[in-house]
Amino acid sequence: MAENETLECITEHERILQEIESTDTACVGPTLRSIYDDQPNAHKRFMEKLDARIRNHDREIEKMCNFHHQGFVDAITELLKVRADAEKLMGQVTDTNRRLQEAGREVTAQTEEVIRCRIQQRNMATTVEKLQLCIPVLEMYSKLKEQLESKRYYAALKTMEQLEKVYIPRVSQYRFCQIMAENLPRLREEIKEISMSDLKDFLESIRKHSDKVGETAMRQAQQHRTFNSAVAKQASMGHYTKPVYSLNGRTHTPNGQLMDDDTGDEEEADEEILTAQDLVDFSPVYRCLHIYTVLGDRETFENYYRKQRKKQARLVLQPQANMHETVEGYRKYFNQIVGFFVVEDHILHATRGLVTRAFTDELWNMALSKIIAVLRTHSSYCDDPDLVLELKNLIVIFADTLQGYGFPVNRLFDLLFEVRDQYNETLLKKWALVFREIFELDNYSPIPVDTEEEYKLVVSRFPFHDAEIEKQDFPKKLPMSQSVPQIYTQVKEFIYASLKFSESLHRSSTEIDDMLRKSTNLLLTRTLSSCLQNLIKKPHIGLTELVQIIINTTHLEQACRYLEEFITNITNVSPETVHTTRLYGLSTFKDARHAAEGEIYTKLNQKIDEFIQLADYEWGMAESDGRASGYLMDLINFLRSTFQVFTHLPNNNNDHASMSGKVAQTACMSACKHLSTSLMQMLLDTELKQISMGAIQQFNLDVIQCELFASSEPVPGFQGDTLQLAFIDLRQVSNILTPSTSNNTMFVLVVKWPFQLSPVFWFTGSRKFLFPLLTQAQAPYLPFS
C-alpha cells in the first residue's frame, strides 16, 4: 500500500517538473500551488526531486561546455586580432564623420530653412483655406449691414437665414462667427421694431391720404355713371360700341342706374385713371408683412394691423360738428370713408390673409350703422333743399363707389327714403316762402293782355282756354290774377325739384310716380293750403282781393288735371294704374274758396259794424232831419260799390258766373241780416233809457233807406222780396213805434225782460203795453200792470 503511494507521488513530481520546464515562467504559480495542496511533507520530497533534477542538468551543461571549449578559445583569439583593425577603422570613421559634419553643416542650415519655409507654406495654405471659408461669411455679413442701412429688411432677413443655416456652421469654431451668431437675434428684433415703426408711419400717412383716395374713387364712380348714361343714350339711338371701362384698376359692368343731370368735364373724363397704388405707397405694409412672416410672427402683425385699422375706422366715422352746414363737409366725410375702405379692399386683394372678407364685412357693417346714424342726425339740421339734394347725390355716388368694391349698400338706399322725406320738408318750407312772396306781390286784379304775344305768354305758363275770351279783341282781361300762372309754374318747379331726388334711387317708374304725387299732394294740401288760409286771414286783404282769390282758386282747381298729366308725362305711368295716387288739389282749393267766402261775409259784417259804430243817434231829439242818417248812407253806398265788384266779375264762364252770383247773393243776404240785427240791437240796448218821437222818426227813415237798398236789387238773382225779408223784424218794430197820432208820446225802456229776448215797454198816457219780439208777425198789445 505504501509502495503504491510512493510510486504515485514520484510520478506526480515528475509530471510537475516537466510542466515547469515546458511552460512559461508566468504560469508556474498554479503548478507550484498544486504541490502544497497534496499530502503533507510532499513539498520536501518535491524539493529533493528538484535538486536531483538540477544536478542532472548541471552535469549536462558541464558536458556541453567541455565539448565546445576549444572553439571558444579560438574565437577569443580571432577577436583579439580583429581588435587592432577595429581601432584603426574607428579612427577612420571618426575622421570621416568629422569631415562629413563640417561639410553638412551648411546643408543642415539650408535644410532647416527649407523646413521652416515648408511649415510657413503649409500654414499659409491652411490660412488661405480657412479664409476661403470665412470670407463668404464676412461678405454676407457686410451685405447684411448694407441691406440694413438701405432699409432692405426683407432681403436682410433672407441674408440672416443664409448666414445661420449655410455660412456660419462652416466656421463656427471662430470667435467672430460666434459674435455674429449672437448679434443676429438682436438684428432681427431691430428689424421688427423698424418695420413696425414704418407700419405706424404708413397708418398715419394713409389716414391723411384717405381723403384724396376717396375723392379719386368717387370721381371715377361718377365718371362711370356718366359713361353709363352716355352708353344708355347711344343705345336708345340704336348704335353704339361698348368700350371697356376700368374703375380703380378693376373692371365693372354697367348697372343701368338712373343718372344725374350733371356730367363731368371732358377733361376729367380724359384724365388718366388712378388707382390706390398710384396715390398710396403700400410697400411698408408688404415689407412688414413679409418680415413678420419670415420671423414666424405673422399672427401678431395681423392682429396689430386689424386693431389699428379698427381704431382708425372709428376716427374716420366721427363727423365734424358743423358738417351739415356745407356740402363740402359731407363730401370730405364721404371721401375719408371711401378712401378707408378702398385701401382695405386693396389690402384684401393684394395680400393673402392680412385682412379677410369677414373682417372687412365686419368693419363695413359697423361703419354702415354709424354712417346711417350720423346722416340721420345731420340731415335733420339741413333746411336748404339744394344742400339736401347735393347730400343725396353724394350718398348715391358714395353707395355706387363702395358697391363697386363689393360692399352691400342697400341700407344706404333705404336711408335715402328718410332723407327724401327731409328733402320734401325743406322743399315745402322753401315753396311756402315762394308762395307767400307771390301772394304779397300779386295785385289781385285780372291779368290785362294787350297783344297776342302777351296772351300766348300767359297761356304757355298756365293752361287757360276760354273760347269767349279768345274771340274778344285786344286789349282784354283774363279772369285770374298774375299769381295763378306763377303758382302753377312753381308747382311744376316743385315737381321737377322732387323728381331730382327720385333719380338714381334704383326705383321703378311706378314708385317714382307715387313719390311725385305724394309730395305734390303735400305741397297742395299743406303748404299751398296753409298759405292761402293765412292770406285770406290777413287784415289788409279786402273784399275785392277775396273775390279775386276765389276766382284764382277756381282756376287752380281746374288746372289740377293738367298737373296730373304733367306727372304722367314725366314718369310714363298711366293714371289708370290701380295703385296710382290721385292729386288732392280739388279739396284744397275748395276749402280755400270756402274760407275766402266766409272771410268775405266776416269782413262785410266787420265793415258794417265799423259804420254802425259811427252812428250817433240823439234819442231825445225833438224831430228828425227829414233824411236818413249819414253813416247809413255811407254804409249803403259802400255796400252798393262792394256788390258791384261781384256783379262786375267776368261772367263769360258759366262756372265763374254761378260762383260769383252765389257768393254775391250770400254776401248780400248776410250783410242785410247783420245790418238789421245791429240796428235792432241799438233799440234793445240796455243803456237806452228813453226815446223821443223825433228819434223814432229818424230811425224809421234809416229803416226805409235800408228797405230801399234791399228793393233796388243790389245783387241780381234774388226771387221776389227775399232780400227785403232781412229787414222785416226791423220794419215791424218801426211801425209799432211810429203811430199815426202822437200826443206827447214817450217811449221808455223800463227793465230787461227775464226771458231770452229783450222786450220793449211802450205806454201812452197812463196805460202801459208790452210788445215781446217773438215772431215776424206783429204781436198784440198786452196790458202791463
From TrEMBL:
Signal peptide coordinates: none
Keyword Cytoplasm: no
GO BP of this protein: Golgi to plasma membrane transport; intracellular protein transport; vesicle tethering involved in exocytosis
Upper classification of the organism: Eukaryota, Metazoa, Chordata, Craniata, Vertebrata
Start and end residues of each Exocyst complex subunit EXOC6/Sec15 C-terminal domain: 412-741
Pfam families for this protein: EXOC6_Sec15_N (PF20651), Sec15_C (PF04091)
Species per Swiss-Prot/TrEMBL record: Amphiprion percula (Orange clownfish)
Protein name: Exocyst complex component
Keyword Transport: yes
Domain of life the protein comes from: Eukaryota
PANTHER family assigned to the protein according to its UniProt record, in alphabetical order: EXOCYST COMPLEX COMPONENT 6, SEC15
General function of this protein: Component of the exocyst complex involved in the docking of exocytic vesicles with fusion sites on the plasma membrane.
Keywords tagged on the record: Exocytosis, Transport
InterPro entries: EXOC6/Sec15, EXOC6/Sec15_C, EXOC6/Sec15_C_dom1, EXOC6_Sec15_N, EXOC6PINT-1/Sec15/Tip20_C_dom2
Recorded family membership: Belongs to the SEC15 family.
Limits of the Exocyst complex component EXOC6/Sec15 N-terminal domain: 49-218
One Gene Ontology cellular component: plasma membrane
